[in-house]
Amino acid sequence: MIDRRVVHTYLILLAITVVGLYVIQKFDIAYPITLRTSQVSSELSVVGEGKIDVTPDTATVDVGITITNAKTAPEAQKQIDDINNKIIEAMKNIGVKKEDIQTSNYSIYPNMVYSETTRRDSISGYNGSATVSVKTNSINLTSKIIDGATKTGANQIQGVRFSVENPEVYREKARDEAIANAKKQAEKLASNLGIKLGKITNIVESSGSQPPIIYAAEKTMMSGGEGGPQIEPGTQTISSVVTLYFEKK
Questions:
Q1: How far is the C-alpha of 131 from the C-alpha of 136, rounded, in Å?
Q2: A GO term (biological process) for this protein (predicted)?
Q3: For residue 96, how many C-alpha atoms fall within 13 Å in the half-sphere facing its CB?
């Protein structure tokens, strides 16, 4: 036997559904209904930018050593080592510190040749390569580094990078300029909007700098005379962008 309370509850729910559908159709109510609330902002945010152009004070030169068709792996190693050692000595002689010279990417590998007769690969010799990176805080040594490296056996100039040794000093100046710029913009906006500025509630900064200036190998090989190639460091831009949040009175 069906419980009367269940039937009663079912009839009530059915009645509510029918009445609801009637009201929606009668008054053309769209559904689902979304309620939105808005909140008036009590802050004014302003973005300011500061830029400082800096002449790079550090140069890094990457020179390459490549040898081919050495008869044995030890012979390939000896050829690379001889050139590497000559380059290092040449760098010291022009005033580069030992700790600013680094050898990397050192490799020796067989030169494989396929034979149609035996249908097999065989070793015809050994190739080798290495990179010597030379760093200097004397920009005027850059051309001498390139010239000295090529004269002592380097057969690749892989690139020259100019950078700033201590960018944070200039980044602070850029930040100060960005904050001053943001405050000026905020005062101008407040005046135009007829509001008064309160205290700064938050500061968000994003800073960056122009990537190191890189000269490709084909450019660095262009001779500027007996003293080596003529290379200029140019300038590097260090920037800061700040967002200031002010209370509105």
A1: 16
A2: DNA damage response
A3: 31
What digits encode the pLDDT tens for the residues 10-68?
A: 555 555 554 444 443 544 433 333 223 334 468 889 999 999 999 999 999 999 999 99
Residues 6 or more apart whose Cβ sits within 8 Å of residue 21: none
- The CATH H-level (homologous superfamily) assignment of domain 58-163 is Protein of unknown function (DUF541), domain 2 (3.30.70.2970)
Q: Is the Cβ–Cβ distance between 95 and 141 less than 8 Å?
A: yes
pLDDT, tens digit (0-9, with 9 covering 90-100), for 71-84: 999 999 999 999 99
Could you tell me the residue ranges of all domains in the chain?
Answer: 37-56+165-249, 58-163
- Tell if the pTM clears 0.70, that is, is over it: no
* 134-189 per-position pLDDT tens digit: 999 999 999 999 999 999 999 999 999 999 999 999 999 999 999 999 999 999 99
Short-list 126, 189, 188, 135, CA closest to 162:
135
Q: Which helix (H) or strand (E) holds 169?
A: helix 167-193
Nearest partner of 151 among 92, 66, 217, 86, judged by Cα: 86
212, two tokens? 């190191």
Domain at 37-56+165-249: CATH architecture = 2-Layer Sandwich (3.30)
- Residue 165 DSSP code: S
Query: In sequence order, what are the residues at sequence separation of 6 or more whose Cβ sits closer than 8 angstroms to the Cβ of residue 205?
Result: 175, 178, 240, 241, 242, 243
